[in-house]
Amino acid sequence: MMLTGKNAIIYGAGGSIGGAVARAFAREGAKVHLTGRTREPLDRLAAEIREAGGAAETALVDAMDPARVGEHARSVFEADGRLDISMSVVGIDDVQGTPLTEMAWEDFSAPVVNALRSTFVTATAAARLMIGQGSGVILTFGGYGPPTAGLGGLQVAFQTQDSLRSVLAAELGPHGIRVVTLQTGGITETLPADFEHAAAVTEAIDGATLLGRAATLADVGNVAAFAASDLASSITAAALNITCGSVADH
C-alpha cells in the first residue's frame, strides 16, 4: 500500500470529492482525519472506512478559521507524532451563468477570496508542523483550463490557488515539503441529481475531452493517493493533469 503509516488531514471530507480522496488514502494505508463543518457526513464516512478496515477520525473544523485549523492540526500532530498529508477540497460557492459585466463584485470575489483563504489557512497550518519533521505533502484541488465565459470568479479562484501553490512549493521545498495540485476539467459525478442542466453539462464536459469521458471520483482518489505517496517524491510545484485531455499540456 502506498500510504502505509502516513497521517492525513482532509478538509471538506464530507463532500463527494473529499470522500473519494479519504477512501483512497485509507485504502492505501493512511490514517485519515476527516474534517468539515457538518458532523453527520463525516461520521458516516468514518464508519464506512473503519468497516473496510481503515483508520479514520472526525472533527468539526471550519477551514476558513485559522485558530481552529491550527488547533486541530496541532492536536493531530501531537496525538500521532507526525502530519504527512494535508489536502483541502473545501467547496467554493460561486455564481455562474451571469456575464461579468452584470455581476456584483461580491458575487465575483466570493469564490476567489474563499478559495485563497481556505488554501492559505490549511496549507500554512500544516506546513508549520511539517517543517519540523522535514517532510510532508500539501495537495490542492482545482485547475482552471482554457478561459470559459459564464463561470464568474471560479476560474480566477483556481488561478489564485495555483499561484499560491507555486509560492508555497518554493518556500517549503528546502524543508522537504511538496505542494501539488490535482487539475480537473470537471467531475460530472458531483453534479446534483436535481440539476436541470446536468445532462447538457455532462455532455459538454465529456465532449471536450480526448477520452470521451470526464475523470471519475475514483480517478481523483487514485491520483491523490499517488501524489501523496513516496512514489511521487520528485513532483512539486506542479499540477497533475487529470482532465482526460480537455486540457493539453505543452
Descriptive account of the structure:
This protein is of the alpha/beta class. It contains 7 helices and 7 strands; from the N terminus they run E-H-E-H-E-H-E-H-E-H-E-H-H-E.
Based on secondary structure, the structural category is alpha/beta
Give the end-to-end Cα distance, rounded to a whole number of Å.
32 Å
Shape: globular
Under CATH at level 1, the class stands as Alpha Beta
How big a fraction of the residues is strand? 15-25%
What percent of residues adopt helix (DSSP H or I)? 40-55%
Mean pLDDT: 93
Protein name: SDR family oxidoreductase
InterPro entries: NAD(P)-bd_dom_sf, SDR_fam
Pfam families: adh_short_C2
Family: Belongs to the short-chain dehydrogenases/reductases (SDR) family.
Q: How is the topology of this model organized?
A:
Layout: E1 7-11, H1 16-27, E2 31-36, H2 39-51, E3 55-60, H3 66-80, E4 85-88, H4 105-133, E5 136-142, H5 154-172, E6 177-183, H6 198-207, H7 217-228, E7 238-241
Helix pairs in contact: 1-7, 3-4, 4-5
Features:
seven-stranded parallel sheet; 250 residues; alpha/beta; Rossmann fold; 16% strand
Sum this structure up briefly:
It comes from Actinocorallia longicatena. The protein has 250 residues and is of the alpha/beta class.
